Every structure is written in structure tokens, then in C-alpha cells.
Amino acid sequence: MAKEVSVRLHEELERLETKRTKAQDELERTKRLLDESEDRRLSLQKEVNSVTNEVDTPEIFCYL
Fold first, then answer.
1. How many CA atoms lie within 13 Å of 40's alpha carbon, on the beta-carbon side?
2. Helix intervals (H) in 1-64
3. pLDDT digits (tens, 9 = 90+) for 21-46
4. Distances from the Cα of 46 to the Cαs of 5, 52, 57, 58, in angstroms?
5. How far apart are alpha carbons 60 and 51 in whole angstroms?
6. How far apart are CA 7 and CA 15, in angstroms?
7. How many CB atoms lie within 10 A of CB 35?
8. CB 16 within 8 A of CB 22
9. Is the pTM of this model over 0.70?
């Protein structure tokens, strides 16, 4: 009886370890995607700022 319980506990531990590993991998993937998204957002923000600065310069009114 004790051996049967031990085997079941060991199998459950293996299943939980597999789930934990998958969750950890997914977390790392999500963090990487978040970092990439933040880098892209910052890049686009710089672009927007640059265009905004160009539009705000007095020289642009000479062309209007």
C-alpha cells in the first residue's frame, strides 16, 4: 500500500514539474515579447516626436 501511494505521489510530482516548466517557459516568452513591444513602442514614440518637432518648426509655415 505504501509503495502504491509513493508511486502515485512520484507521478503527481512529475506532472506538476512538467506544468511548472511549461509555465516558466511561457513566462520567459511573455517577458521577451513584452520587452520587444516596449522597444518598439519607444522607437515609434521617437518617430512621433521627431515628426511633431518638424511640424512645429516655423519653417513649415513658409511652405503653406
1. 6
2. 2-56, 59-62
3. 999 999 999 999 999 999 999 999 99
4. 61, 10, 17, 20
5. 12
6. 12
7. 10
8. no
9. no
